[in-house]
C-alpha cells in the first residue's frame, strides 16, 4: 500500500451512498471526473425493493451493470391493477403486458440491499473514484469550490457537490435551496414474503379505500409487499405476529398466491411528498430524494432519480468540453431546466392518483373508473400509457436512449 495521503481535492464530490449516490459516483467517475463518494460505512437494513423500469434498464445496461442486476432480481412481465375499494363506482381490472409494446419485461424488481451491494462492488474498483467513509459535518460553498468538512476531520474540496443525501439533505440546506412539502394521511407497511403459487412475473396492485396494496415478484416463489394504509392500521399490522400478519395479507390478496409466509424484517414509513424549488445552486446539484420524494405508487422513485443522474452527467460533460465551470451557475441552471418538467409531472401525477383513490366523492370515483375503462378498451392509449410510465418521451437523457456519454 502507498504511504501517500489520499487526495482531498476532486472535480466532483457525491454525498450519500444509497443506490442514487452510488450510481451517480460511478457514472461521473466513468465520465472522466475525479470523484469522491462521501458517506458513512454503515447503512440501515432496508427490506424495501425497487422496480427498475424502462430507461433505468437502459441506464444500467449502457454502463455494463445490467446483467448482474437482472440476475439478482425478478422480471416484471405483467402489471395488474384491481379495484378492491368496494365502492359504488369500481374501476374495471386493468392489465398491462410488456409484450404488447415489444418487451420481454418492463424491468426487474430487486431488494434495495442487494442493489446497493452490487453497486458497492463496482464503485470499489472504479477508476478515478475515491470512497471516503465519513459524514459531512459542514459545507462551505464559495464561488470557487464546495468545501466539505467531514466527521473524521478531513476537508474535501470539489468543483461540484452532488447531494444524494436524502430527504433531509444537509447539502441542500447549505445551498439554501427551499422545498415544497406536504404530508399524506397514510403510512406504508413494507416487507417480503414467500408463497407456494408462482407469481408468473405478474405484479398485482389492489386498490383499497386507504391506498394500494402491491405484491411485486421477487426471485423464486417470493414477493415484496407495499401496503398503504392509515398510520394507525399500518402500525397495528406491523405489531401482529408472523402468522397473524401472513393470514391478514393473504386475505387482502384474495389468496391468489396461496398461503403466505412472512420473512424477517418489516418497516412502516409515513408518506409525504417534497419537491426542491431548484435542482441546483451554489455548486450543489440535487439528485434523488434530496430533490424529490413521493409515495411508493407507480414505481417511480429510483427511476426518477436515475434520470436526474443521467441528465446531470450529460450536462456536466458538455460543460467540461466547453471549458466551462462544471459547478457554475450556468451548468446548474441547465440541469434545473432539464429536470423540472419531469419531476413536476411525476410528483404531481402520483399525488393526484393517490388523492383520487382516497376520494369519497362520487364524481371523482366515476372519472377514475372511466379512465381505467378507456385504458382497457383503447389499445393505442394503453400502449402510450405503458411507454410514458416507463420513461417520458420528452428530454430523455442520452444514457437512457442507449447512447453512451463519452468521457471528457
Jot down its keywords:
408 residues, alpha+beta, FAD/NAD(P)-binding domain, 8-stranded mixed sheet, 11 helices
Topology:
Blueprint: E1 9-15, H1 19-30, E2 35-38, E3 49-53, H2 55-62, H3 66-72, E4 74-75, E5 78-83, E6 94-97, E7 107-111, H4 112-125, E8 129-132, E9 136-141, E10 146-150, E11 155-163, H5 170-174, E12 179-194, E13 202-208, E14 211-218, E15 222-229, H6 231-238, H7 242-252, E16 261-276, E17 280-281, E18 284-286, E19 292-293, H8 301-321, H9 329-358, H10 362-377, H11 379-390
Parallel strand pairs: 1-2, 1-11, 2-8, 5-13, 11-18
Antiparallel strand pairs: 3-7, 4-7, 5-6, 9-10, 10-11, 12-15, 12-16, 13-14, 14-15, 16-19, 17-18
Helix pairs in contact: 1-4, 1-8, 8-9, 10-11
Task: Give a verbal description of the structure.
It is a single chain. With 408 residues, the protein is an alpha+beta fold. It has a single domain (9-182, 273-401), classed as 3-Layer(bba) Sandwich (FAD/NAD(P)-binding domain), CATH 3.50.50.60. It has eleven helices and 19 strands. The strands form three sheets. Strands 1, 2, 8, 9, 10, 11, 17 and 18 form an eight-stranded mixed β-sheet that branches. Strands 6-5-13-14-15-12-16-19 form an eight-stranded mixed β-sheet, sandwiched between helices. Helix 8 runs antiparallel to helix 9 (329-358). The radius of gyration is 22 Å and the shape is globular. The model has no long low-confidence stretch (mean pLDDT 90).
Amino acid at each position: 500500500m502507498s504511504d501517500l495521503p489520499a487526495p482531498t481535492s476532486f472535480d466532483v464530490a457525491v454525498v450519500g451512498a444509497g443506490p442514487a449516490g452510488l450510481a451517480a459516483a460511478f457514472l461521473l467517475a466513468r465520465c472522466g471526473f475525479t470523484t469522491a463518494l462521501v458517506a458513512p460505512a454503515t447503512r440501515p437494513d432496508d427490506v424495501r425493493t425497487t422496480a427498475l423500469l424502462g430507461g433505468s434498464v437502459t441506464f444500467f445496461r449502457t454502463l455494463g451493470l445490467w446483467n448482474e442486476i437482472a440476475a439478482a432480481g425478478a422480471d416484471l412481465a405483467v402489471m395488474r391493477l384491481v379495484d378492491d375499494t368496494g365502492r359504488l363506482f369500481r374501476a374495471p381490472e386493468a392489465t398491462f403486458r410488456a409484450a404488447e409494446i415489444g418487451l420481454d419485461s418492463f424491468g426487474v424488481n430487486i431488494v434495495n440491499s442487494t442493489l446497493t451491494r452490487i453497486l458497492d462492488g463496482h464503485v470499489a474498483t472504479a477508476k478515478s473514484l475515491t470512497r471516503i467513509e465519513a459524514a459531512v459535518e459542514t459545507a462551505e460553498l464559495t464561488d470557487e469550490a464546495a468545501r466539505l468538512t467531514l466527521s473524521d476531520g478531513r476537508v474535501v474540496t470539489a468543483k461540484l457537490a452532488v447531494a444524494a443525501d436524502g430527504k433531509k439533505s444537509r447539502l441542500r440546506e447549505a445551498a439554501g435551496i427551499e422545498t415544497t412539502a406536504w404530508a399524506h394521511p397514510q403510512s406504508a407497511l413494507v416487507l417480503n414474503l414467500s408463497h407456494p403459487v408462482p407469481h408468473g412475473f405478474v405484479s398485482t396492485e389492489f386498490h383499497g379505500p386507504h391506498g394500494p396494496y402491491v405484491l411485486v415478484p421477487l426471485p423464486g416463489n417470493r414477493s415484496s409487499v407495499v401496503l398503504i394504509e392509515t398510520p394507525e392500521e399500518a402500525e397495528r399490522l406491523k405489531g401482529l405476529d408472523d402468522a397473524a400478519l401472513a393470514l391478514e395479507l393473504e386475505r387482502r390478496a384474495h389468496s391468489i398466491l396461496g398461503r403466505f409466509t412472512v420473512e424477517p424484517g418489516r418497516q412502516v414509513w409515513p408518506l409525504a411528498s417534497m419537491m426542491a424549488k431548484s435542482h441546483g445552486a451554489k455548486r450543489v446539484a440535487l439528485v434523488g430524494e434530496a430533490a424529490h420524494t413521493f409515495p411508493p405508487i407507480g414505481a417511480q422513485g429510483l427511476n426518477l432519480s436515475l434520470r436526474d443522474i443521467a441528465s446531470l452527467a450529460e450536462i456536466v460533460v458538455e460543460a467540461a468540453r466547453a471549458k466551462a465551470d462544471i459547478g457554475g451557475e450556468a451548468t446548474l441552471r441547465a440541469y434545473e431546466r432539464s429536470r423540472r418538467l419531469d419531476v413536476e409531472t411525476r410528483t404531481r401525477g402520483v399525488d393526484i392518483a393517490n388523492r383520487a383513490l382516497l376520494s369519497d366523492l362520487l364524481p371523482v370515483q366515476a372519472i377514475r373508473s372511466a379512465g381505467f375503462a378507456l385504458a382497457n378498451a383503447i389499445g393505442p392509449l394503453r400502449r402510450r400509457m405503458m411507454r410514458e410510465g416507463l420513461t417520458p418521451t420528452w428530454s430523455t437523457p442520452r444514457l437512457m436512449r442507449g447512447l453512451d456519454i463519452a468521457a471528457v
